[in-house]
Write a structure and sequence with these properties.
The chain is mainly beta. Strands 1-28-27-26 form a four-stranded antiparallel beta sheet, with no helix packed on it. A four-stranded antiparallel beta sheet has the order 2-3-4-5, with no helix packed on it. The protein has two helices and 28 strands. The protein folds into two domains: 281 residues, YVTN repeat-like/Quinoprotein amine dehydrogenase (Methylamine Dehydrogenase, Chain H), CATH 2.130.10.10; 49 residues, no CATH class.
Length: 336
């Protein structure tokens, strides 16, 4: 079966805005905003398994082994059971205030960022004791760690880079190129970082030189969240849309419209992806370019570039080779 575009598969309405979502062994964990202030667990068939009220608004969810970490607006961090969502431990007053993207993991450490205090802190897994602290910038948020252990932290108009284990700033580790507040980050590879910010744009950065490799334009309001699967990037925005991008050419593959208000989060799950937002709806999207045959996708991309189907003899060989690589990458994404 072929799908040219992503299509809506399911639509679940919650009691309040959906701020963050993760999937663990097929079970969906949803962080719900005020006035609900709760974590809900849902089965793959769309049945609510549990509802647990929290002392403050849950801003971030992160999973490792038997734990789910939940950052609260009031600055506390909850350690939840990955099995049933029960509260196992609370790290009190971890920060003054915690933003939507505020937690990361590296080895035996949980890493957290305080939006107003501008601090990055390290917590030892299991004992939950604080083992390190670094000053970042006001607006510190969205810590992400590369496979080699480089910690990137978004902030007010810049991105700071640290060694994830020692906490030492990386040499030349500050990307500052007249950008608005960085709201979300994701590593593309060891040397490239993708950011979403309040100025509506998505940028691809070379972290070695600090230069901007590409700017992805299209959203008409702030970019709240990013999710990556291979070379395919999904972005969620205040403009009520989700966009799919092909990062090897920096092209927008599809503008997905389904939400009626701000989209706060997006997550790839199996061959599908999920999006949640202020309209209190969790949407599941299926299909996409990755479900097309190799031949159909090649034809589609050629037509997109040239406006009509042309004989292959009319197209430069380097263009054909580039588009073939795009097709193979997209198909690989669908097989993950």
């Amino acid at each position: 079966m072929e799908f040219v575009r992503c299509e809506l598969s399911s639509d679940i309405t919650f009691p309040s805005s959906i701020l963050r979502i993760i999937v663990i062994n097929g079970v969906l964990f949803c962080a719900l905003a005020s006035p609900t202030d709760a974590i809900e667990l849902w089965s793959p068939k769309g049945k609510r398994l549990s509802h647990r009220e929290l002392p403050s608004e849950p801003r971030c969810l992160l999973h490792k082994d038997q734990w789910v970490f939940c950052a609260l607006k009031n600055g506390n961090i909850l350690v939840l059971s990955a099995e049933d969502g029960s509260i196992l431990h609370t790290i009190e007053e971890a920060h003054v205030h915690m933003f939507s993207n505020s937690l990361a993991l590296w080895g035996p450490f949980l890493i957290s960022c305080g939006y107003f205090d501008g601090k990055v802190r390290w917590w030892r897994l299991g004992s939950w004791e604080a083992v390190g602290e670094r000053e970042s910038r006001v607006g510190a948020c969205s810590p992400v760690v590369s496979p080699s252990g480089v910690l990137a932290v978004g902030g007010d108009k810049d991105i700071a880079l640290f060694d994830a284990e020692s906490g030492q700033p990386k040499a030349g580790g500050l990307i500052r190129r007249r950008i608005d507040t960085v709201l979300c980050l994701v590593w593309l590879d060891e040397h490239c970082l993708v950011s979403g910010s309040g100025d509506k744009d998505i940028r691809v950065w070379d972290v070695v030189s600090g230069s901007c490799l590409a700017t992805l334009k299209g959203h008409t309001d702030a970019v709240n969240d990013l999710a990556l699967r291979g070379p395919i990037l999904a972005s969620a925005s205040y403009d009520t849309t989700v966009r799919l991008w092909y990062l090897k050419t920096h092209q927008c593959l599809q503008v997905i419209k389904g939400h009626r208000d701000t989209v706060y989060c997006v997550l790839f799950s199996g061959p599908n992806f999920l999006s949640g937002g202020r309209d209190k709806r969790l949407l599941t999207w299926k299909g996409g370019y990755h479900r097309m045959s190799r031949e159909s996708l090649l034809t589609l991309l050629l037509c997109h570039k040239y406006g009509s189907c042309l004989a292959l003899s009319c197209i430069p060989m380097d263009v054909i080779k580039t588009i073939v690589r795009m097709v193979d990458d997209a198909l690989m994404w669908g097989e993950e």
